[in-house]
Amino acid sequence: MNALHTSRRALLGGSAALAIAPAVAAPAHPDAELIALCHQFDEHERAYQKIYDGPLAIADEDEAARLAQPIAAARAALLPRIIALHATTIEGLMTRARTVYLEAPEEGREAVKVLEKSPYMNELLMASLHRDLMAMAGVSVVPLGGHRDDSDNRQPG
Predict the structure, then answer these.
(1) How remote is the C-alpha of 110 from its chain's centroid?
(2) Mean pLDDT value across residues 143-150
(3) From CA 99, how far away is CA 40, in angstroms rounded?
(4) pLDDT-based confidence at 156, cuts 50/70/90?
(5) Model-level pTM?
(6) Please, are residues 93 and 30 in contact by the beta-carbon 8 Å criterion?
(7) What pLDDT is attached to residue 141?
(8) For a disulfide at 85, which of 14, 34, 64, 140, Cβ 3.0-4.6 Å?
(9) Residue range 39-66: average pLDDT?
(10) Mean pLDDT along residues 98-113
(11) Quick one: pLDDT band at residue 153, thresholds 50, 70, 90?
């Protein structure tokens, strides 16, 4: 009975020591900054796309440009740090891939076209990499709707 009593005392003493021990914070995710920046960029990108595409698109080009300018500036401010960071985990890489294909869905469409018709090994290898990244990141191979930006892919209003 004395051994049982000692064991209980040892257990209770151990529990008390655990209760007093300082809390140790879980280590930060290695790609936490990249993931957070990509999520911010994605929010801006979705807002930007709504100005030019979909049922709420702004028909007046000058008004659309006026509304898009601060969003484009916010994206541009995030970009240097997003580019500078290296993804070191699958989660970081997949987050970056989703950001890339949200901002540039034509990259995914081009990959599909290349896989269907290119005779060149280097193009096929790169296209298969795009295809696999999109699949792993849960990105649609052929995104719905178009994406318009301030460059060459504007569609008539």
Answers:
(1) 20
(2) 40
(3) 10
(4) very low
(5) 0.70
(6) no
(7) 61
(8) 34
(9) 94
(10) 87
(11) very low
Residue with tokens 């999109």: 134
Contacts of 139 (CB under 8 A, 6+ apart): 97, 98, 101, 102, 108, 133
CB-CB contact of 87 with 31 (8 Å): yes
* CA distance readout (Å), 9 to 5, 22, 112: 6, 22, 68
Secondary structure string (H, E, C) spanning the chain = CHHHHHHHHHHHHHHHHHHHCCCCCCCCCCCHHHHHHHHHHHHHHHHHHHHHCCCCCCCCHHHHHHHHHHHHHHHHHHHHHHHHCCCCCHHHHHHHHHHHHHHCHHHHHHHHHHHHHCCCHHHHHHHHHHHHHHHHHCCCCCCCCCCCCCCCCCCCC
Q: What integer pLDDT is reported at residue 9 of this predicted model?
A: 52
Residue 52, token pair as written in the block: 């030019």
